[in-house]
Amino acid sequence: MEHIKCLIIGSGPAGYTAAIYASRANLAPVVYEGFEPGGQLTTTTDVENFPGYPEGVSGPQMMEDMRRQAARFGADLRGGVVTSIDLSQRPFKAVVNDTDTIEAEAVIICTGATAKYLGLPSEAKFRGMGVSACATCDGFFYRRKDVAVVGGGDTACEEATYLASLCRKVHMIVRKDYLRASKAMQDKVASMENIEIHFLCNTQEILGDESGVTGVRLLHADGHTEDIAVDGFFLGIGHTPQTKLFAGQLALNEEGYIITDGASSRTSVEGVFAAGDVQDPHYRQGIVAAGKGAVAAIDCERFLLAQE
User: Fold this and answer.
1) Number of neighbours of residue 89 by Cβ within 10 angstroms
2) Is the alpha carbon torsion for 49, 273, 282, 248 positive or negative?
3) This prediction's pTM
4) Angle, in degrees to the nearest 10, between helices 286-307 and 12-24
5) Distance of alpha carbon 101 from alpha carbon 95, whole angstroms
């Protein structure tokens, strides 16, 4: 059975940054990159808000740059998925691809969170071409344009109010006849003159052409449809943290995110650390995930030194 100091589960900005820092600290980290090496940013076309890329960069290219940097310092980057793990005692035992077992003195979890989508074929077709699950990431591209936001909770209202500060008009598509958001968020939405709420509507289809999204087709509760011209379509129906592997072993909040101790990356199990979207339900930004990856590696290094 292979025995290592530091196991990093997941990639993306958090995982690769943790790998860079852990490698430079001589922890010889092994990284299992998961089903989607590079994480959600590999599905993003242009990234303009990550420091160090003044001209912008594609999501896949930025993730490849981070991956190469981690490899340069000796991180052992492996394809494969951790399919089960026992965190009941150290060394922790992880099973990879349902076959191979690896023992680790410490674990850094960077499995991320997945945006919830409606499941429409047109949604998948135009992902990265007008369909987005992050207004903070992509709203800048729709300045002075018309966009739509689907959802009626706090997430959707936050996305809509942010976009309203940039866009000409924001259409909120809400399937109920009321907003589920907190009163404060409802009041904020109501105060924005360029937000129009379409209650009792579902998204039937996202319309577009080879250049990207051009509109959205709404299905009203009474059965009639309505086409609205928009340049961008934003999902505001939440995220699902990838924590099923750790349920019952780590403390999770009610939404399933890993709970960490204050500003640290420490979880409820000594020697297990978490970074990035898997423990961050608030910001969901690549630069924040990268910073948390650095924090996790430093916390991990200090923990292992204390064990010696």
Assistant:
1) 9
2) positive
3) 0.83
4) 40
5) 4
| Cβ atoms of residues 267 and 280 within 8 Å | no
Average pLDDT of 131-152? Answer: 93
Intrachain domains 2-114+239-307 and 117-235 with the same fold: yes
The letter for the amino acid at 174 is V
Tokens 């940013």 belong to 41
* Neighbouring residues of 35: CB distance < 8 A, sequence distance ≥ 6: 81
Is 153 in contact with 238 (CB distance < 8 Å)?
yes
* DSSP H helices in the chain: 12-24, 59-72, 121-125, 135-138, 154-164, 183-190, 286-307
* CATH number of the 2-114+239-307 domain: 3.50.50.60
Reduce the DSSP state of residue 226 to 3 states and report it: strand
What is the Cα–Cα distance from 231 to 229, expressed in whole angstroms? 7
β-sheet with 195-198: strand ranges across: 131-132, 232-235, 146-150, 169-173, 195-198
| Alpha-carbon torsion angle 146, 152, 156, 157, nearest 10 | 90
**What mean pLDDT comes out for the span 80-88?**
96
**To which H or E segment does residue 83 belong?**
strand 82-86
Phi, psi angles (nearest 5°) of residue 153: -95, -170
pLDDT in tens, 244-293: 999 999 999 999 999 999 999 999 999 999 999 999 988 888 999 999 99
Q: Which are the catalytic amino acids?
A: 134, 137-138
Whose tokens are 């951790």? That residue is 82
CA–CA separation, 72 and 67 (whole Å) = 9
Q: Any idea where the domains of the chain sit in the sequence?
A: 2-114+239-307, 117-235
User: Residue 196 pLDDT more than 80?
Assistant: yes
Q: What is the CATH number of domain 117-235?
A: 3.50.50.60
pLDDT score of 154 more than 90: no
Phi, psi of 93 (to 5 degrees): -110, 125
Burial of 216 (0-12, 13-18, 19+ CB in 10 A): buried
